[in-house]
Amino acid sequence: NPRVGRRNPGLDRFQGFVLSVPAGRARLSRDYTVTATNSYAIAIGCEAPGSDAYWSNYSAGGIGTPPLPVTAGQAYRFGARLRTDLQQGEAALALTFFSADGHWAGVPGREASGVPSEPVTGQTEWTPREVVLTAPPGATSAVLFFRARKAVGTVWFDAVEFGAVPAAQTK
């Protein structure tokens, strides 16, 4: 494949992330054939019914490699394009924050362990999803999740963006 070895700036910055599989069986791979950016996508293949898996910097308490520093009071956008070939379950992005000592710094009134995007289910082409949150008091780093939940099949993530939202674009 002539794309093998191509860089993907949206995904390359997250190379220290780790795949976690709390339930079932799943694998992580770079897919150079299914891609929205003509480089590669990250694929999570869920091989057992009801598999839950996520690729994230959560395993480092949000303060490990690579750190994603944030400023409390600033809005941040985590977006990507998702493609699914799921016989069951769903795929989504999720965003949350950690404090300097590695504890959850959740957004008040929202799930501390990650506010999800709208899910993607079934068999789809590239579908944009995003989460925009304001870092709460005490937040020093962002924790990003690329998730497959209760899934059988494959989900691909590509065209990833994470960064501060200019003040004029926040609601």
User: Unreliable segments (pLDDT under 50, ≥5 consecutive)?
Assistant: none
- State the helical fraction: under 10%
Derived structural class: mainly beta
Sheet with the most strands? 7 strands, antiparallel
Mean pLDDT: 90
Into which percentage range does the β-strand content fall?
over 45%
Separate helix tally: 1
Task: Give the topology string: H per helix, E per strand.
Answer: HEEEEEEE
Number of strands: 7
Shape: globular
Indicate the radius of gyration in whole angstroms: 15 Å
Distance between the termini: 43 Å
What key attributes describe this structure?
7 strands, 171 residues, 2% helix, 1 helix, 7-stranded antiparallel β-sheet, 54% strand
What does this structure look like?
This protein has 171 residues and is mainly beta. The protein is built from one helix and seven strands. Strands 1, 2, 3, 4, 5, 6 and 7 form a seven-stranded antiparallel beta sheet that branches. It is globular and about 40 Å long. The relative contact order is 0.27.
What's the arrangement of secondary structure elements?
Blueprint: H1 9-12, E1 18-23, E2 26-31, E3 41-56, E4 75-98, E5 115-116, E6 120-134, E7 141-164
Antiparallel strand pairs: 1-3, 2-3, 3-7, 4-5, 4-6, 4-7
Summarize the structure.
The protein has 171 residues and is mostly beta strands. The chain has one helix and seven strands. It has one helix at residues 9-12, and strands at 18-23, 26-31, 41-56, 75-98, 115-116, 120-134, 141-164.
